[in-house]
Specification:
heterodimer, A: D-Maltodextrin-Binding Protein, domain 2, D-Maltodextrin-Binding Protein, domain 2, five-stranded mixed beta sheet, four-stranded mixed beta sheet, 17 strands, 19% strand, B: MetI-like fold, 2 domains, 74% helix
Amino acid sequence: MRRGLARFLTGIMTLTLVAGLTGCGGSKSANGVEKVRLMVWSPSEDQSKDNGEWLQTMCKSFANQHPEWDITFVYGVADEATAADQVSQDPDASADVFMYANDRITNLIDAKAIARFGGKYKDAIESTNSKELLDSLRVNNDIYGVPFTTNTWYMFYNKSVFSDDDVKNLDTMLKKGTVSFPLVNSWYLPAFYLGNGCTLFGNKNDESKGVDFGGEKAVDATNYVIDLAANPNFKIDADGSALAGLRDGSVSAMFTGSWDANAIKETLGDKMGVTSLPTFTVNGTKKQMLAYAGSKAIGVNSHSEHMEQAVALAVYLGSMEAQKAHYEMRNVIPCNTELLKDPKISADALVVAQNNTFNNTSILQPFVAAMTNCWTPVENMGKGIRNKSVTHDNAKEQTEAMNAAMNSNGIN
Amino acid sequence: MAKQFQSAKKKKMINNTVVHIILAVLAVIWLFPIFWVILTSFRAEKGSYVSTFLPKAFTFSNYEKLFNDTTILNFPQMFMNTLFIAICSCILSSFYVLAVSYCLSRIKFKLRKPYMNMAMVLGLFPGFMSMIAVYFILKAVGLTEGGLIKLALILCYSGGAGLGFQIAKGFFDTIPVAIDEAALLDGCTRWQIFSRITLPLSKPIIVYTVLTSFMAPWLDFIFAKVICRANSDQYTIAIGLWKMLEKEYIDSWYTSFAAGAVLISIPIALLFLFMQKYYVDGVSGAVKG
């Protein structure tokens, strides 16, 4: 037994040594073809056989287009929401090319983990995307990623309950059927405040402008939401209750994004309607609800050893061809301006709704550092309204308290 | 006299009834979440939100999905990864704990007291405090990529085990030194005393050590998350279950998540049932002073 243990320990030590010694290797082969090892991270759906292995297909076709490089791809799984954190924690051991949600862009820049796009690549990105979309990836006039889809939420409804005219105004809808909205989620609730004229960092990522969620306009919005919560035709969406309501018929309209689209389509079938956000009526005037919108983009690790190839691959994965395949295989809504003119894609209600929301009924979700202070106070406001601790009587002071909390980092 | 006796009996019965009712209520409260998870794992309705406590229809498909729908979240692979890691680190760390405890209990050496104090102080810090340092050390040695991640995790879970000797040492202290001395006179070496005499007398504490050192890696999330990163083929079940509750997956995976939670409790339950026999034997048959 003792000898067995000794052997086991020696085994471990040898393994560690061997592992430590590998990892360095040559990179140039004889016939001028450069050997390249690229690590690529994407959500697991992009690599799954059921969805046609989008990432592998695209990488292969990229390699075919570049015979001058002998590329070995290493695939890893990191979805857009977490990839940025993973990369900024340890850029050295992270993917050369990864997909991230634009709200993490400041983290990546602070961690010096993301590369800027320049020259012909920057021109290529700028020529095929809308200005608003590019703004979501622009910091100090530099572009930090190749956008491949927009990221926002909008309205799904049952066409047999609401007509095309009904869905233009929330109050009209409430008279005809049940509407569910995630009041207690601070990604959704600001829609009413922003719609009534409140602003976050000037709605233009300008940290110096601060948060303006106070004053008459904000109190009016709070009062509107209090009435909304008390409406018998309104249900608060929490923990998936709206989707369950759509399934059993107790809810006829809900607010969510493309990630729930398949489940809703399965439930409502042809009766599924999807559109950008409705207006709501405050003190007799119509105001437009405004969602937070962002983008998902392909980023390049600034620590990459093969920068040229990594940038080229990122641009290719965000190209029109790749977006088209992404849409066909996985229903990822494209953002390439050329591709959106494709008659098949422009006829897709989901694509239209998401892009209309992005273009008309949303603001760019601020990604300045101070934005981190804005989530909890809004969530607490939503919870207060749900628990009825925020009422018409104390709406003013509660709103001002929320505004103060959003403007402070809680330390000084 | 008889009346008095009867009333005492009656009093006892009332007492027992009250106690049992309270215990029953507490048992229901404690078992309620487990019962609910089991029910949810058989629920046929989709989605994460339900308006009724009892499912409207029952199905096995949540379990089938875990094992058939493996292209996005490969549960069988995660299960085997975790089982492998947990078994290896269980064997390693049980050995460490028992060996360290035996040494500290039986061998008197100069650093004994300082070592025990140091271990006590180190034990006061939470393990994940050193997480980042551990990650960078493992990365420097090259253990953070591919299949070596399993080795890295085994090292993580078993490496610090020697510090958790207190309970086992306390147990060894209760076994009389006289037995050791008798064995020594008969020509036993230290190792033979440990393996032939002390260990067979210490079944309860071995069972306890094995159970705790199996549970820790089986349930751990933080270290696995930090070390696995984007290597989805190395994920452990804790990471897999956590993934199932993300925004994109929760609607279609929620009931399968409950099924997964039921499945991971099976190895622990089996281990406990199997070891309980020895546990009881050990306690009843122990040779005490």
